[in-house]
Each structure stands twice: as structure tokens, then as C-alpha cells.
Amino acid sequence: xxxxxxxxxxxxxxxxxxxxxxxxxxxxxxxxxxxxxxxxxxxxxxxxxxxxxxxxxxxxxxxxxxxxxxxxxxxxxxxxxxxxxxxxxxxxxxxxxxxxxxxxxxxxxxxxxxxxxxxxxxxxxxxxxxxxxxxxxxxxxxxxxxxxxxxxxxxxxxxxxxxxxxxxxxxxxxxxxxxxxxxxxxxxxxxxxxxxxxxxxxxxxxxxxxxxxxxxxxxxxxxxxxxxxxxxxxxxxxxxxxxxxxxxxxxxxxxxxxxxxxxxxxxxxxx
Length: 271
Known about the structure:
- It is a single chain.
- With 271 residues, the protein is an alpha/beta fold.
- The chain folds into 2 domains: 3-123 and 223-258, 3-Layer(aba) Sandwich (D-Maltodextrin-Binding Protein, domain 2), CATH 3.40.190; 126-215, Periplasmic binding protein-like II (D-Maltodextrin-Binding Protein, domain 2, 3-Layer(aba) Sandwich).
- The chain contains 10 helices and 11 strands.
- Strands 1, 2, 3, 4, 5 and 11 form a 6-stranded mixed beta sheet that branches. The protein has a 5-stranded mixed beta sheet with strand order 8-7-9-6-10, sandwiched between helices.
- Helix 3 crosses helix 9 (233-249) and helix 3 (54-73) runs antiparallel to helix 10.
């Protein structure tokens, strides 16, 4: 390995070790507060939000964070929520600025190279919002058609098309849109055959504005988990214990129901 690359690798390892030490369970107990990166509060008018399930996901994940805080520092209220933008969450975790990141983070080979993940707490995948009786019944039906794709953060359209393109084995023709309203307009105009989004987002949208529309079957199968700094085995084990107890007691399912989030809980297992 070239000297500069070796120095960079050593620096990353040192930063990761420092982050793990700052978020070790004993260090968190001594501090008296669990610091967690979560979704922001969002637009007060839910109908204007780019993600129809934003508040539902946030409610579930804050509930999980409170349960972990109760176990770790003795009270669900001893919790500091850091509302960071999506691209900032994993870097903040790796830098030791937060102890955990709980924000519908997908478990992928790329993300697993950066952080460690708990057992999954939610399962979902990409799907298509389309007119009732629409053409998409499976992955193969994406070929030769153009679809609206939400472009909430820089690079979102590329990431979504790459996810579906990898599953399809061919490029996805995408039309970036700002929100579900713009996606519906594109569908109604005939510009696109449907809107690609997370199945939970579509289900929440349909519950309020579903006349004449439907969701396709999920086109990908993805799991979401709590992110922990690399090497922090003690904190990861504690998070997994809390999640297992929440699944076994039914608390995780109750949180989903209270948040009006479509059922997506998983039985556990490796991320």
C-alpha cells in the first residue's frame, strides 16, 4: 500500500476507534444522555412533504430511540435527538458526534463498509404508484417505460435508478420530481407510467389520496436497521437486545400501529 494511502487508512481507523470509545455504553451512562440522529421535524403541512410517510417513520424511530435510552441511561427522556440531513447522518456517527443513527437506513454492502448495523427493525422496498389497473406487476414491467422518481436529496434519482436497475438488469428511465403531487401530475399527463418510491411512502399516500390509484408489488426487498459506529460491539449488542425484546413483546408492532405505518417489522436475524 502506498505511504499516503496507508496513512489515510490509519487515520480512518483512529477516528473510528475514537468514535466507538465516545459512544461506549459506559461512556454514554457517564454522560447521562443518549444522542441519536433522526429525521427532521418536517413540514408542518404533511401534504406538502416530499415523503408522505416521513412523520410515520419518525414516530416509529423516535419510539425505538426512547426504548434504547430507557435501557441504557434509565429513562426514555434522557435522549438528545439530532436532526441531520440524510447525507450527514453516517458521517456524524463515524465522527462520534452521535451515538446512534436511526433513520430508515438501508443495510447495503456500501453502508456496511462504513458502520455496523443492528438486526433490522423494518422491512420494505421500492414499488410503483400507478393508476388502478396499471401496467406494473413485477420488475419486468419496468422495461421500456418511463417513471417519476423522487429527488429529495442530491443524487436521490441516481441512487433509486441504480437500485432498480441492478434488480432489473437494465437501466431505468427516470423523470426526477420534487414530490408526490408532481409525480401524480406527470402520471396524469402521460409523461410517466408511475412514480417509484418506498412502498411505505406509497401506502401512506394511498390511505389519504388513493382514489383511482394503487401500489404495485414491492420490486426490491430491503431491510432497515440502527447504525452503530464500527467496532462498538457493546453498544451494538445492547441495541440488539432491546430490539429483540420489543419484537417479542409486541412493542415494535404497537409502535408501527400507533405511527400508522404499514406493517413492515421483521423477525430479526442478521442485517
